[in-house]
Write a structure and sequence with these properties.
- Helix 6 (about 160-170) links the parallel strand 7 and strand 8 (about 175-180).
- This protein has helices at about 40-50, 65-75, 100-110, 115-120, 130-140, 160-170, 190-200; strands spanning about 5-10, 30, 60-65, 85-90, 120-125, 130, 150-155, 175-180.
- Helix 1 crosses helix 2.
- By secondary structure, the chain is of the alpha/beta class.
- It has a six-stranded parallel sheet with strand order 2-1-3-4-7-8, with helices on both faces.
- It is globular, with a radius of gyration of 17 Å.
- The longest helix has 14 residues, at about 190-200.
Length: about 200
């Protein structure tokens, strides 16, 4: 049985992060997806083409982080899910409500919807460019995810409130594991140990 685990990094990450999971997933071929998309509409095209290329594998395990998880859900959920072979998904600090996150960033930047609609794009002091096209697309294309999933979340995640990820997990019938003191970016030795144990216990 040919099994593959595909790791999808978050913003600022890279394909080499997949190497970390090789020792945790001995029964799988582990690869990283080096996607270029920066918008959900580009992700739809790129992600679907990549996962369609995995047709020779009997089982596909998806491991996705942060916005990589959001892009995967946008591209591979709903009706398209029946044509891809993803057996299960493991989401690490997933962005599950992009519309809310964009509105939160607008609030941080003191930008109103009317301003963003009028100007189209507005750069912020914290490095993100707000986009009316992006926000409109997100609102018009809600996530429709129907693949068996599990979610790992840090209690100190600064991008997604607990109530939002909890409600999303309930909506898609995903199990939710919360690391007390964990952050959006799992990176300390304690956080990585928790993450590794979580991955190993679910990679059967």
């Amino acid at each position: 049985m040919k099994k593959i685990a595909v790791y999808i990094h978050g913003k600022g990450g890279n394909v080499a992060e997949a190497d970390h999971y090789k020792s945790l997933l001995n029964d799988y071929e582990v690869v990283g997806f080096d996607y270029k998309a920066e918008t959900p509409w580009d992700a739809v095209t790129e992600f679907r083409a990549f996962f369609a290329s995995l047709e020779d594998y009997d089982s596909v395990l998806l491991i996705a982080n942060s916005i990589g998880a959001y892009f995967a859900m946008m591209a591979l959920g709903g009706d398209i899910s029946s044509s891809v072979k993803i057996e299960r998904a493991l989401f690490i600090s997933p962005v599950v409500d992009m519309g809310k996150l964009i509105c939160d960033m607008m609030r941080w930047a003191n930008v109103t919807e009317d301003e963003l609609r009028a100007r189209g794009e507005i750069p912020t002091d914290f490095g993100e460019t707000l986009s009316w096209k992006y926000l409109s697309y997100v609102r018009e294309h809600p996530v429709r995810w129907n693949i068996s999933s599990e979610i790992l979340y840090g209690s100190n995640d600064n991008l997604t409130p607990y109530e939002v990820v909890r409600d999303f997990a309930d909506k898609i019938s995903a199990s939710l594991t919360v690391m007390d003191g964990g952050e959006h970016w799992f990176h300390t030795p304690e956080q990585m140990k928790f993450l590794d144990q979580w991955i190993e216990s679910r990679a059967l």
